[in-house]
Fold this sequence. Notes:
The chain is an alpha+beta fold. The protein is about 40% helix and about 20% strand. The protein folds into two domains: about 1-85, no CATH class; about 100-210 and about 220-350, Endonuclease/exonuclease/phosphatase (Deoxyribonuclease I, Chain A, 4-Layer Sandwich). The protein contains eleven helices and 13 strands. A hairpin with a 2-residue loop joins strand 9 and strand 10 (about 310). Helix 1 (about 1-25) runs antiparallel to helix 2 (about 45-60) and helix 9 (about 230-260) runs parallel beside helix 10. The chain is elongated. The chain starts with a helix and ends with a strand.
Amino acid sequence: MKRITISIFLGANLCTILLLWLCVALTYISPEHLPRLSNLTLAFPVFLLVDILFIFFWLLFKARLAWVPILGLLLVGAHTLDYCPLNIGKDKIIGESNDSNITVLTFNVSYIPDKELQEELISFLNITNADIVCLQELPKTFFSDHQKWLDSTAYHYRQSINVAILSRFPFLSDTLSINYPTRSNRSTACWIDCYGDSLLVINNHLESTHLSPTDKDDYANAITDPHRQTIKNSSRMLLGKLSEAVVYRGAQTDSICSLIDRNAGHPVIVCGDHNDIPISYTYQRLARRLASAYREAGFGPGFTFSQRFFPVRIDHIFYPKDWQCLSCQIDKSVPFSDHYPVVARIGKKAN
């Protein structure tokens, strides 16, 4: 009986490792080909946690088998650190630029129609004092409504509908068109003169799942008060919307990567609400071209979007791989959006 029990648990551990590997493999395949299966990457942290628990299980009951879950972790080691980096000793550096380092901020502000909340956003921007600010879901009239504040700063700005870039450096171009399939989301790009270099900044708000508050409540209720039919209906609805959105994001990511590749001779910064976690086609395709600020300087899973049962990191800052990231923080003190801002201090590596 003991041998059978051990075999069952070993089989379960091996299945968990295979699922971890499958999640990683799916990040290399366009969601267009496997739209429903692509959503399996969302379960990566669950499989990761189970595999870690198996380490302790084997140490307690069959120590010589502890190498199995450890090998599973090693097989997906780099991706584990994408999801949960463990950088220690990165100081919080936010403020005035010095030398060639710059502070970059990305923030989905959730439209903030309330004037008092807009004043809070302005206060936050003043305190953060970032050199480049990428905002998503910004009201179209925000800058015209706050022209006096804008005139009092050193910011130049470019805005395309509800996506905007603020820069303390002069712009070298107007917004560049990034055409990709979408229902309502968008990306915008601009060239900026950054200490004499032409820097391409791409600000993204990639395809949302379009889950309404009612959809989210139904899903949350199915978890807290489970009934078979309710769970079935909620799961079918959720999977359908997730699958549709992930296909859009795959095509959008391909368009952004094409823009990056066409300008491979210039530094590129990519920011925004990508609506995808680090174990995803979107994140990994960008990470193969650029460095991730939170991956290089963050600690822990670093959730940037946190509503009931939806804690995820979907807001990212990418920068050239020959630069360095001195610090990267997620500011969870900001109360007026369902996203948290991400702030990174980056710059060229010293020769």
